[in-house]
Amino acid sequence: MQVKGPNEFHRTMASAAKNGSFPLEEMMQPREPEAPPRDPVLLFLCGDVMLGRGIDQILPHPSDPRLHEVHVRSAAEYVRLAEVANGAIPLAVAFDYVWGEALSALAHAQAQARIINLETSITKSAAYLPKGINYKMSPENIGVLTAAAIDCCVLANNHVLDFGRDGLFETLDTLHRAGIKTAGAGRTLAETEAPAIIELPGGGRVLVFAFGHCSSGIPRGWGAGTDIPGVDLIADFSARTRAGLAERMRSAHRPGDVLIASIHWGGNWGYEIGDAERDFARGLVDIGFNIVHGHSSHHPKAIEVYQDRLILYGCGDFLNDYEGISGYEEFRGDLSLMYLPRLCAATGQLIDLRLVPFKIARFQLHRASAADAGWLLHRLDAVYQPLGVTTSLNQDGTFSVHWR
Predict the structure, then answer these.
(1) What's the pTM value of the predicted model, to 2 decimals?
(2) DSSP character string of 129-176
(3) What CATH code is assigned to 46-52+95-403?
(4) Mean pLDDT, to the nearest integer, of 55-60?
(5) Which of 104, 269, 284, 357 is most buried, judging by how many CB atoms fall within 10 Å of its CB?
(6) What angle do CA 321, 383, 298 make, to 5 degrees?
(7) For the residues of 283-335, what is the DSSP string, one character each?
(8) What DSSP state is assigned to residue 344?
(9) Does 12 score more than 90 pLDDT?
(10) What mean pLDDT comes out for the span 313-336?
């Protein structure tokens, strides 16, 4: 090969530039070093986490057990019912007790952000609202959330104001003092509508926008106003509602953010997804959200992958004190799921999704048995397939989700 001298090399470069082979001026300019590609983003999502009533009674600092329900007058009764169903439950348990085997699953997964729907007011207030069922946990038991290193509690649900505005304020103060971010409820409309912003260890952010709909049981009077505390309550599933959410999202969004729309909607039982809900969820993806995180149902509902974005129509309860309560056994509300979606950091597209099945027993999460996991896998396949989603069982007992 003949090596060109410096003069000939420069003449060749100039000729190439003249003929448009490449932009010589651009090559001569100093270039900013390209940012290294970011690793995929792995999240932990789940549905309702209820830490009040019976669960609060077994924690180190239980609230006054008095209840104002029609049939049950003491939270201790829910402890008794659970013990009849599954065996003795210790009192004054460590704060990590209720998470059980979920903690090792989380440690193994190494999720970069942990997001739950907290369906419990955290307050010492006794000023309950007469709505039939009221959930609260003592603020002194906040260690139950920090024990699981929860990053964000979604609060746009039908229990966060069970003890009025003072109860809401105490909930917000307690969570924020513990370093836990909140979304979907606040002292003002601006605070209520603002997303929770989670900075990721490898760079980038997760933005959680949270809102609720009255179909989940949120009273209409709980909606926040300009200077009125409350929850972010959407009026309907219309294009106008989506447009308002799109405006808020764009004002907070930076390139590379992972955008989550967390919505409390629908009834407690049943698998049906209405056309309005499906259109709304897809519309949220169309305006830029990467994940639709739906909750309110007491059992897992359908999953859809639309435009390579994840839609969870109902995550099901993750923790509750419903053991021993009869009714709706066909839905197996004692079985819960941990959702572990992995997203492309650059585009927000879903790369893969694993589900970890658990069973709630003695107010604690246990990995589901082979029989329970098989039952849940069979039921989920029946629910998912109409939306083009299937599941398979992995050797470690987790489920992989597939879509077309």
Answers:
(1) 0.91
(2) -SSS---EE-GGGTHHHHTTT--EEE--SSSTTTTHHHHHHHHHHHHH
(3) 3.60.21.10
(4) 98
(5) 284
(6) 15
(7) HHHHTT-SEEEEE--SS---EEEETTEEEES----SB-S-TT--S-GGG-TTE
(8) -
(9) no
(10) 96
